[in-house]
Specification:
Elements: E1 2-3, E2 9-10, H1 15-30, H2 35-45, H3 50-62, H4 69-85, H5 91-104, H6 108-118, H7 126-139, H8 142-155, H9 163-176, H10 180-193, H11 198-211, H12 214-223, H13 225-228, H14 234-249, H15 252-263, H16 271-286, H17 295-304, H18 312-324, H19 328-341, H20 347-364, H21 372-381, H22 389-405, H23 409-420, H24 427-441
Antiparallel strand pairs: 1-2
Helix pairs in contact: 1-2, 2-3, 3-4, 3-5, 4-5, 5-6, 6-7, 7-8, 8-9, 9-10, 9-11, 10-11, 11-12, 11-14, 12-14, 14-15, 14-16, 16-18, 17-18, 18-19, 18-20, 19-20, 22-23, 22-24
């Protein structure tokens, strides 16, 4: 049994597999497109590399595509077989496989607990730490995410190869908690410690955006281009943040150029890419900007995913794309599928019931956002969708727009007050308020 550079004890006897696996973990940390190839190289060098199979399983689940569930199942089965072939493997490997088992069954929450309990004595062991961070991010558990990063930062030595990446995750957790001064300081420290830490770069860009500090945000992202443009499709998300900053400045031509060249350079169906594109086009149209035929490829992808309820966050963005092209039939089919999913089992069934269905019905025009109790519950439960505050702001703005169309100044003020705790006043919310005033006076 040997511990790798990121403090994970594995049972492999292959030096080649150890090197390849460390490359995979580094790729995970830096969002490199080579991560999948590094996992494949690991398993090629050692077909019984337990942690390699576990990472493959988690990587496929995190993509939140229904067809990849079979691949995650296969990875779990392979990991179990590898444990048997390794006489039970290491304690670390057994924890990873147990956590993957829970995640495959539909409970990211139980998977997180397995990882946290299994590595309670080493909260900075990087792979489980990063998986916990990713899973809590996807489940919208801001408090748990911050607790985990606080423990890891307290345990990690500054000279550890993963220290910068851990600090970058901590900066993001602080930002999501609204602790912007700390997030800015820790995020900048993370990037100093590890210049390839794109997640730390991302955390700092969030701070600038939420504060409305567009000049510093644009400068931060432009000067760090050489890092984030080497990422996988995470580079599209970084470009999305850059576009939002230019949108706040009113530079619509620049935003459209960024959309075409960097936010949506490829017609992918990755839910994160869809979220970037859908939310940016919707914002542009709310500000009166003509977006041409750009909605069409998003709507086509949404139609292909209208029955996929693997992640409700993704389904709601698909719904918004269908609404944008007035495809009422497909939009209704998606809502029907979500209502069916809400009666099922697993974490996402609960999210569908508590957040997804009521929000979807409002977006499609079947709900009543003026119902104050419903509105209050929705705003309270919205973090359960997962994603960041900046990403969920798309849904907050949608609710505000619906209220604005009804001239509901009270409801709009309530949403605005809640939003103001995290985000500075911006052009878009002012535009929505102006619409509301128009409906009241006409």
């Amino acid at each position: 049994m040997k511990s790798d550079a990121y403090d994970l004890v594995t049972s492999t006897g292959s030096a080649e597999a150890r090197r390849a696996f460390e490359n995979a973990v580094y790729g995970l940390a830096t969002h490199r497109p080579s991560t999948g190839m590094a996992i494949s190289a690991t398993l090629s060098a050692d077909p019984d590399h337990v942690a390699g199979h576990a990472l493959k399983g988690f990587a496929n689940l995190i993509l939140a595509r229904s067809e990849l569930k079979a691949t995650a199942d296969e990875a779990l089965a392979a990991a179990r077989t590898a444990l048997v072939n390794r006489d039970g493997g290491s304690a670390d490997e057994r924890v990873l496989v147990a956590a993957l088992d829970e995640a495959v069954s539909g409970s990211f929450g139980r998977a997180i607990l397995k990882l946290e309990n299994g590595f309670s004595d080493r909260p900075s062991s990087f792979l489980p730490f990063k998986l916990i961070h990713a899973l809590r991010f996807m489940t919208g558990d801001r408090e748990g995410m911050l607790r985990a990063t606080l423990r890891a930062v307290a345990a990690v030595e500054a000279t550890h190869p993963a220290a910068g990446f851990i600090y970058g995750c901590h900066a993001f957790s602080l930002e999501e908690a609204g602790r912007y001064d700390e997030a800015l300081r820790i995020g900048q420290k993370a990037v100093q410690m590890q210049p390839e830490d794109s997640w730390g770069l991302h955390a700092v860009s969030h701070v600038h955006e939420m504060r409305g500090d567009t000049a510093r945000g644009i400068d931060w992202l432009e000067t760090s281009r050489k890092v984030w443009t080497r990422c996988n499709n995470f580079s599209f998300h970084m470009a999305w943040h850059l576009a939002l900053l230019h949108l706040e400045r009113g530079d619509h031509d620049r935003v459209l150029a960024l959309y075409d060249d960097e936010v949506r350079p490829l017609p992918t169906d990755d839910f994160r890419d869809m979220a970037n594109a859908v939310s940016l086009l919707w914002r542009l149209e709310q500000l009166g900007v003509h977006t041409g035929s750009r909605w069409e490829d998003l709507a086509a992808i949404a139609r292909g995913r209208q029955n996929d309820m693997t992640l409700i966050f993704a389904s709601l963005h698909n719904l918004a794309a269908l609404i944008a092209v007035s495809d009422q039939s497909s939009a209704q089919q998606l809502v029907d599928a979500m209502e069916k999913a809400a009666s099922g089992n697993g974490d996402q069934a609960k999210v569908a019931a508590e957040v997804g269905v009521p929000l979807a019905r409002i977006l499609i025009g079947l709900g009543a956002p003026a119902d104050r109790q419903m509105l209050d519950r929705l705003m309270l439960n919205l973090p359960k969708l997962g994603g960041s505050n900046a990403q969920r702001d798309f849904f907050v703005l949608n609710l505000a727009a619906k209220l604005g169309e009804k001239g509901d100044q009270t409801g709009l003020s309530s949403i605005g007050a809640t939003r103001a705790h995290l985000k500075a006043e911006d052009r878009l919310i002012r535009s929505i308020r102006a619409v509301s005033i128009y409906h009241v006076t006409h």
